Amino acid sequence: MSQLIYKIVPKALWREAEAARVFTGAPVDIADGFIHFSTASQARETAAKHFAGQDNLLIAAIDGGKLGEALRYEPSRGGALFPHLYGPLSLDNVVWVKPLPRGADGDHVFPQLEQE
């Protein structure tokens, strides 16, 4: 069974990853030493907190079950466990990528996300 986790990423950065077939992280990921992901229940809060007002974003669904021991769930905001990947993300583990547009209210409009 797949265990989907999600990455919100600027379109231009993701296009570079597609060309390389590997995503090494956004600047914040590189600075922190791991790639930040969100679960389905965390993705909207992540968008509001870290991507407010930003356009040209994508959301990628990743099969976390294929990432092995490099994927760790660690405490973050308010003690909630967030998925962190210690290493590059092979795009072979990406299930889908969809646009993450903003609606008329300015909030991002999410596709259907698979709940845990």
Brief account:
This protein starts with a strand and ends in a 17-residue tail after the last strand. It is an alpha+beta fold and 116 residues long. The protein has helices spanning 11-20, 27-32, 43-50, and strands at 4-10, 22-23, 35-36, 57-63, 71-75, 81-85, 89-90, 94-99.
What is the general shape? globular
Gross CATH architecture: Alpha-Beta Barrel
Let me know the average pLDDT.
94
Approximately how much beta-strand content do the residues carry? 25-35%
CATH fold-level topology: ADP-ribosylation fold
Strand order of the largest sheet: 1-4-8
- End-to-end distance: 11 Å
CATH class: Alpha Beta
Radius of gyration: 13 Å
Structural class category: alpha+beta
Question: Could you name the ranges where pLDDT drops below 50 across 5 or more consecutive residues?
Answer: none
- The tally of strands reads 8
General description of the model:
With 116 residues, the protein is of the alpha+beta class. The protein has a single domain, classed as Protein of unknown function DUF952 (ADP-ribosylation fold, Alpha-Beta Barrel). Helix content is 21%, strand content 31%. The protein has 3 helices and 8 strands; from the N terminus they run E-H-E-H-E-H-E-E-E-E-E. The strands form 3 sheets. The protein has a 3-stranded antiparallel sheet with strand order 1-4-8. A hairpin with a 5-residue loop joins strand 5 (71-75) and strand 6. It is globular. The mean pLDDT is 94.
